[in-house]
Amino acid sequence: MDTVKKYELCEEYIRYGARVTTAKLVSAITNTKAVMMYRSIHGTGSETGRDPQKWANYLSKPYVYGPMQKFLLCYWKLAGEAMLDDLDHEVVLSAYKMYAGIYLNDEQKIGLTVAWSAARAIAQKEPGADLKFCPDCGRVYMHGKRALKVCPLCLKAKEAFKNAKNGLSAGAL
Ligand SMILES: [Zn+2]
Q: Which Pfam families does the protein's record reference (predicted)?
């Protein structure tokens, strides 16, 4: 990657909400430059803190599980099988843009740093970043501690359907 491209990638990652650590890793520019870039874009310093190390634990948090699944749908669409063995920072960014656009009005969204970390975890086949295909909708999903039989979105849909049916029969009594 040439220098101009590196800077552009770093800048885009920062604009879309990645922390300095992530932007620096994907673009391979120096820490000082990344920090300066972050400040000039956001006017403040970057958040600190580590990315989750144990995906199995992290994914079981409900506020991550649903949004993560939505991101993976976009990522899978763009990267296909390559998501299992190749981490392409530009593809991850494109997938994130798609995700942020499609789910614009969702209250709960994951940040680009989390999305990128998940993509990395999948490519590196880290424990807890196991992918499965949903037998109902055919989409890919990442499962953590709870080995789900269908993807979290289909699971939610099934629950909603069940609740609606129960509500109907309760109303009939
Ligand atoms: Zn599904």
A: FlhC
Q: Where are the domains of the chain?
A: 3-42, 55-169
Task: Please tell me the distance between residue 156's alpha carbon and the centre of ligand 1 in angstroms.
Answer: 9
Which segments of the chain have a pLDDT < 70? 170-173
Residue 116: predicted pLDDT:
94
Instruction: Specify the pLDDT at position 172.
Output: 54
Round to whole Å and give the CA distance between 44 and 134. Answer: 41
d(CA 66, CA 51): 18
- Give residue 147's pLDDT: 75
**What's the rounded Cα separation, in Å, for the pair 13 and 33?**
14
Read off the pLDDT of residues 108-123 as tens digits, 9 standing for 90 and up: 999 999 999 999 999 9
Give distance in angstroms: CA of 77 to centre of ligand 1. 14
Ligand 1 centroid from CA 151, angstroms: 4
Distance 161 CA to ligand 1 centre (A): 14
Among 50, 32, 24, smallest CA distance to 114 is for 50
Helix (H) or strand (E) holding 96: helix 89-102
* Placement of tokens 């970390």 in the chain: 117
Å from CA of 149 to ligand 1 middle:
9
pTM, rounded to two decimals:
0.85
